[in-house]
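@channel sequence for tomorrow's demo:
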Amino acid sequence: MDRDEHRRQSFEAWEGMAAGWERSRERIETTATPVREWLLRELAPSPGDTVLELAAGPGDTGYAAAALVGDAGRVISSDRSPAMVEVARRRAAELGLRNVEHRVLDAEELDLPDDSVDGVICRFAYMLMADPARALAETRRVLRPGGRLVFAVWREGERNPWVSTAGRMFVARGLVPPPDPRAPGMFTLASDERIRELLSSAGFNARLIEDIPVLFVSASLEEYIETARETGGLFAQVWNEASADLQEEMVAELEDAFAPFAVDGRYELPGVAVGVSAE
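structure tokens (generated this afternoon):
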């Protein structure tokens, strides 16, 4: 798939998933708490700073920074999906935030001046972009001298059974093609080498690259599937196109695969993100 086609499909997918992400926001943020805390700690924004969040989704990571930059500072909460920006806008209104600006921005072509922000946050998005090198170069352009970038991506699929188990099942059944390790996807930035390569090409120096353990808790397999259908574009597409008999077979397969992670009647699925801080 060429980059323009990926951008088109990605845009349509996120526009379609915005409502599901809004419904699942609390569960997503509970799971992502260790990542959010790591990013905020490493960004360490000061009162009065301007912080840009890229691919912000519902916006909660950037809103945590809003409390740190204070009334004299500003958070630009952005996403390429207008529907996601509206989700974030509603969340900001719910929190009563007054120092947040909402923008529809493409991370690969930021409509912002050079040297205009003090810090950039991006949680689980660079790996999904058609051209992460271009997006990182744009990030470098808008950062002021001495500004800091913090972002998170996922480690290898083997360390993230919460998502890779279903993906392997779909591939094995011929429902999706095997992933291209260099194409945009969940695990394309899993290695330190690839991360450092991209940062260096964009003019960044890596300060810290560190694993962040996370835990995905589902009360039941039914809850896991429903959440995945609401927040995972590929999962939703495959599952919704499957026949009732095929869905039943895949439920049984997931039940067997997740059995080692069953704890007191629920599932505790481990994952590992990687946090990156760069200047």
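heads up for whoever presents: The radius of gyration is 19 Å.
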